[in-house]
Write the structure tokens for this entry.
Amino acid sequence: MELIELEKFWQLINEKLQLWLETGVKHLPNIVVAILIAIVFAIIARIVGQVTQNVLRKTLDSRQIADLLSSIIKVCVLLTGMFVALDFIGLKGTVTSLLAGAGIIGLAIGFAFQDMTENLIAGIAMGIRKPFQIGDIIEAEKVFGTVKTINLRNTLVETFFGQLKIIPNKILFRNILTNYTTNGIRRIEIPVGISYADDPEVAAKVIVEALNDCDFIIKKEETAVYGESFGDSSVNLLVWLWIDYPGETGFMQARHTALATIKTALEQANILIPFPIRTLDFGAKGGEKLNTMWQKKANIERQKKGTEDTESNTPDEKNVEGKKA
């Protein structure tokens, strides 16, 4: 019984081996062609990856983004070649299973590393859109400084206080971002107050003429002074001027020089920049003015004093009668 079972077992194995051999010989040309297809696609992927990398490095400022995109393109070409080769030898079900598995794995990775993936996608998008470049001065999410490094996941910004801030790319991609380097100019606004006794038009003319003599001010025809409000002690004005930014004269130095120039010009024109002054006036809406109140009080005190003097000079009636007796 055992010999018969062994013979059946070996017979089954021989049949399977023979079937596989026949199938392999039958599909041998297809296998050779599939291998050649895979080799051709590998060569094409290498060439496409190298060309794409060179083009993207010239196009994009971030070397990391360029390398990542070129690698993604290279992998896509390789996977296409592998799927074509598998389909050529009749393994369509394998191709479908691989695609489904790749989709499930990608979905799982996306959920597991959602924050990292979002920063990565934002970094790639910003590398293509180029909202800013290395060396630009930007402001976003209360961070104001110069861009030092642009990575795939974050951007390194050096603030004007000398600190390095690491900003996730998704924050720069989602929120409002101000790039001060794009236009190359910036407006400075300086508030100044003059006394109510001075003419705002004369003050504006004096300030504009003095500022336009400064070399760092550009667009001199747009240097202007506007009235803002009536303050407690002064007529408040706003001075607008334009400078190159960033330029040889920094923002802080330009504003300091402009402020000093305004002060000197107003002093030379005998226009007062007043200190805080408080005036008490009770004459509004039926009230009584302070000087009138003081005048009335002085008159009352003067009358009281005159009455007291009169009474002191009048002789006592009893003393007068005693003298008469």
